[in-house]
Amino acid sequence: MILLRIALRNLGRAKTRTVLSIISIAVGVFVVLVSKGFIDGIMDQMYDGTIRFASGHIRIVHDQYPAKEQLLSLHYTVDDDLLLDLDEVPGLVAVSPRLRFGGLVSREATTQSVRITAIDGQREEAMSGMSRFLVGRWMLPGTREVVAGGAFLDKAGLVVGDRITVVFNTAFGAMRGITFEIVGSLESGFVMLDHDSLFMDLNLAQELLEIPGEVTEITLLAGQIDAVEGLLSTVEALVPTGTSAIPWYAHSEMVEYLVVWDSVYIFMYLIIVGLSTFVVINTMIMVINERTREIGMLSALGLSPGQVLRMFLWEGGIIGITGAVIGAIPGSLLLLIGERTGLELYDPASLDAQYFMTPKLYPTFSTSILTYVMILAVLVTLFAVWLPSRTAAKLEPSVALRRNG
Amino acid sequence: MAGILTKLAFRNLWRQRRRTILTCLALAFGIYMVIILDSFVGGMTEMAGRNIVQLQTGDVQIQAHAYVDDPTDRSLDHVFAYSDFTDDLRQLDQVSAMTPRLSFAAELHNGMDDYHVRAMGVDPLTDPDVFTTQQYLAGQWLEPGQQQVVVGARVAQLLDLTVSDYVILLTRTANNAFQALDLEVVGILDTPHPEVNLAVYVPLDMAQTSLGLDQAITSLHMTVSGSAKSAYEAISSVVEQQNSTALGAYTWEQAAEDFMVMAQSSRAIHSMLLSMLILIAIVGVVNAILLGAMERTREIGVLKAMGMSEREVTQEFVTEAFGIGFVGSAAGVLLALLTNWFLVEYGINPYGDMDLGAGIPLRGHLYGVWNWTIIAGAFMVGILASVLAGIVPAIRAAGKSPIWALRQ
Amino acid sequence: MKRLVLLMLLLVCNSGSAIAETAEQIMKMVEANVYYGEAYMESDMTIRSGRREMTKTMSIWVQGQNALAEFTNPADRGTKYLKLEDEMWIFFPDAEDLVLISGHMLRQGFMGSDMSYEDMMTTEKLSELYDLELESQEDLDGRPTWVIGATAKEGVDVSYAIRKMWIDQEYHISVREELYAVSGRLLKVSRVEEIDQIAGRNYPVTVVTEDALRRDSSTTLRILHIDFDIDVADGLFSLESLQR
Fold first, then answer.
1. Which chain B residues contact residue A27 at CB under 8 A?
2. Does residue C8 fall inside a structural domain?
C-alpha cells in the first residue's frame, strides 16, 4: 500500500504531467467511443432496417418469388401452416408472416399507388418493433382499418381518422375496392415505411385477396445474428420443396453493399483506435522517461525493480481509470443526446424508397462498448507504463541517476 | 541571434531525437491517415459517380422534365425528335460526343418465365463514344437494325439466359398496340452499375421502328470537355432556343439525385470520423511538445542564467515546436503524396469481383483523388497545433526566475 | 362466243359464291350477328392461371357505347363496372367512393383474365378500326371458314395491330381469332367452343382465350343467357345508378 501512496503523491506532485496523461487517455476514449457510436449507429440503422423490415435474419419465400418481388406478385406464396413448425424452432425470437401486395388509393377520380403489407400484429411487433414509430393505434383484427405511412398521409392531405378507398387485385386478378379507416400513422424516418405504404391485418388481407392461409414470406429473427448460420439448416429442413430459406446476407445486393461499407468503416475505426493507442503510449513513454532519474533514486533508496514497476503500474492504473472516466462522460453524453435527437444528413424528400436509411443519423450508445473502450484504455495505459518502466527499473541506480531528466 | 536560436533549437531536437521522432511520427501518422482516408472516400464517391456518368447519364443529358420529376414514368409520352438539336449541339466546342437513347418498359419472356425490365434502345455506333458499357460485355455488341438484345447480368441470371438464346420482348408501341419482338441474345452485360445489370439493350433504330417512333428518343446523352458548368449552360441554351419547354438539360448530378444524396450523407459521416482522427492526432502532438518543454525547465534556467532574454527563450522553444510540426507534417504529407500518387495512378481493387448493388455503383477499380484543400489544410493544422503547443509552456517557463527553473 | 362468256361468268359466280364476298361484307355479316344496340346477358368466366382457377358470374347490360356489368358470384357480388363512352367507373360494395379506372389500368387484365379491359369493353366495330382482307378459305374442325386478316388502320389506338379471324361460313361467326403484336408475333388465341341459336341469331356462347406467351393461362367465357329485346331503364348507365 505504501507503493499506492507514493504513486498518488507522485501524481499530485507532477500535476501538469498527470493532467496531460489523463487528457490523452480521455480524448482517446472520447474519440474511440464517439466514432464507434456513430459507425454502429449508421450500420445498425441500415442493417437493422433491412433485417427487421425486409430480410429478417432468415426469410422464407417461394423459389420464384425473388424474381417477381418487384411486381409484388401474389402468385408465388408460402403456406402459413409453416408458422407452427417454425414456432417450435429453438433460438428464434420472432416468426412473422407477411403478405405484401400492391394497390391504389383512389380519391376523387385520382389514384396513387401504395405498397400494402399485411401483418400479424403480435408476431410483427416481435420482429420489427414497429410500434415505436406508431402514432395512433394498430388496426384491430377483423376490422377494416389500416395504418399508413406518415409521409404518405401528409402528401395525400390525409390525417388519422380519415377514410380511404383502396383498390387492389386479388390473387386471381379480380379487382376489389374497399374503404378503410386510417387508425394510425408510422413516423419511422425510413422512406420505405413512411412513403407509399399501408399496413393491414393479415387474416383480413388473406380473405380479401382470396388466398386464405397463404403469405408471400415468413421472416425469422434469431436471438443472435451469429446463430443464423446454425438455424439456417434447421429451417431449411422444415420448409417444403419449392420454397427457399434465404439468410439476411444473401437477401439483396443492398445488403452486400452494406457489408462492404461496413468494412470501410471498420477500417477507419481501427485506424482511430490505433492512433489513439499510439498517442497514449507515446505520452506515457515520455512521462516515464522523464522520470528515469527518479527511478534511480528510488532504487538507490532500496526499492526493488518489481516494487518500482508496481508503483508505476499503480500510477498508470489511476491515470488510466481517471482518463477513461473523464473521456467517457462527454462521449456518452454526446451519444445519448444524439440517440434522442439525431443528426440530419439529407432532405428526406429526395431519397428513393429502396434505401433503408433514415434522413437522420442516430448514433448508438451501448454500455458494453463503453465498458470495452474503458477497459481497453486502462489496459493500454498500463501497457504504456509497463513498457518504459520495466527498462528503467532494471537500470543500475547510478546509471539511472546520471540520465538527464 | 535568430540564427543561433534556430541552430540551438535544431541541436536540441537532435539531442532528444527519440522524443522528436516519436512526436513527429504521431503527427505524420495522423496527417497521413487523414489525407489517405479522405482520398479513399473521395475516390469511392468519384468511382460511383464515374460509373453513373459512364454507364447511365453521360456528363450532360437532355430529356423531358416529366421523366425527371417522376422517375417511375416509363411511358412514351415524352419522347422527342433529337435531330432538332444535333446540328446546334455539334456547333458547340464543349460537346465532344453524343448519343441518343430510348428508354421503355418491357417484359422479357424466355418461354417459361417473364421479367419486367427497363429496355433501352441505343445507337450501337455512337453509344460507345459516351458510355463504357461495352467494356463489361461478354459476347457481341449490338448491330444497327438487327433483332438483337444485350441483357444485363441480373436479368440473364433471373431468366437463365446465355448468349445466342432467343427471347421475346413484349412492350407497347406509341399507339398502345402490343409489340412482341423476337430477339437474339448477343451479349451479357456485367457492369458495376446494378441498374444496368437489370436492363436490356436493343439497337435504337430497330426499337424506333418497332415502337412506331420515327427518330424519337427519350434522352440525348453527351460527353463534354472543358468546364462542365459552361458546357451545361451552352447545352441548356440550345434546348431553350428550340423553345421546347417540356425538355431540359440535366447534369449527371441532377439526373442522379439519389446517388448524390447518398454520397452527401456518407461524406458527412466520413468528415465526422476524420475530425475524430484529427482531434486525437492534435492531442498527441500537443502532449508531446508540452511534455518535451516541461522536461526541460531546468534547461530554461540554464539558458536564462547564461543571459538569454525571456523573448529569446520563448522563441527558441517555439522554433523547436515549429521544427517538430514542420518535420512531422511534411513527413506525413510526403508519405501521403507518395501513397496517394500510387492510389491515383494505379488504384486498388478492394472488392474483387463482389457484386455490389442497390443503385450504388461502387464496384470496380478504386482510384484515389487529389484533394489539395485537405492536404494543405492537414499540413497547416499540423504546424499550427505544434507551434501553439510550444508557445504555452515556453512563455510559462520563460517567465520563471533562473533559480526556480534550475531547482525544478 | 358471247354465250360462252356469260356461261363462264355464271359458273364463276356460282362456284365461288363464297369467294365473291369481300372481307368487308363478311365482317358486316359477322357484326350484324354479334353486335347489338341493346342487350342483356348473363355469363360466367373461368380464369385459369397456373394452379389457380376461379369462376366469376355476371349480368351485363349493353346500350350502344355504354355498358354495365354486375358481378353475381359470391366473391365479387355487388361489384359493378360501368363503361360510359371512354371512361370506366367501378362500384365496389365495400368502398364508399366510385373508382375511375385510368388509361393504363384499362389495358391490364380484366378481372385477372387473359382478356384486357380493352378487349372486353371495345364496343366499336372491328371494321371501323381495322383494314380487312380476305386471305383464304379453310376448313376448321370440318366446317368451312373464311380467313380474314385485319390490320389496324393508321393512327388508330388498338392493342393488337394484327388480327386473324376464322369466320364460319354458315353461322357468320368468328370461331377462332388470333391476336398479334405489331411484329407479327402471336400473343393470344381465342376460339369459340360452342355456338347457340339465340333469338334467331347464331351466337358464340363459349369462348376460350389463351395467352400465347404464358403457359397454363386461359380464360373461358360462357354466355348463359342473352336477351336482345330489352327495355333499358332510364338512367341505368349513370353514376347514380352505379351506387344504388
1. 279-280, 283
2. no
Residues of chain C found within 8 Å of residue B178, distances taken between Cβ atoms: 159-161, 179, 181-182, 187
Of B19, B266, B357, the CB nearest to A252: B357
With a cut of 50, say whether residue C2 has pLDDT above it. Answer: no
pLDDT band at C16 (very low <50, low <70, confident <90, very high): very low
Supply A120's cell numbers.
Answer: 400479424
Mean pLDDT, residues A79-92: 90
Report yes or no: A77 and A210 within 8 Å, Cβ to Cβ. no
Please state the domain count of chain C.
1
Residue A327: its H or E element: helix A305-341
pLDDT tens per residue across span B98-152: 999 999 988 888 877 778 888 999 999 999 999 999 888 999 999 999 999 999 9
Domain assignment present for residue C145? The answer is: yes
Which residues lie below 8 Å from residue A52, measured CB to CB, with a gap of 6+? A127, A128, A129, A221
Numbers of helices and strands, H then E, in chain C: 6, 13
List chain A residues with CB under 8 Å of C105. Answer: 111
CA dihedral of B335, B339, B344, B345, whole degrees rounded to 10: 110
Q: In CATH, what number is assigned to the domain containing residue C69? A: 2.50.20.10
Instruction: Locate A269 and state its grid cell.
Output: 475505426
Backbone torsions φ then ψ of B41, nearest 5 degrees: -65, -45
Domain extent at residue C71:
19-242
Cβ-contact B276, B357 below 8 angstroms: no
Q: Where residue B192 falls among pLDDT bands split at 50, 70, 90?
A: confident
ipTM greater than cut 0.90: no
Contact B321, B6 (CB under 8 A): no
Q: Which of residues 65-94 of B touch A (CB under 8 A)?
A: 71
Domain chopping of chain B, boundaries: 2-53+260-407, 79-245
CB contact under 8 A, C111 and A174: yes
Domain boundaries, chain A: 2-50+256-402, 57-250
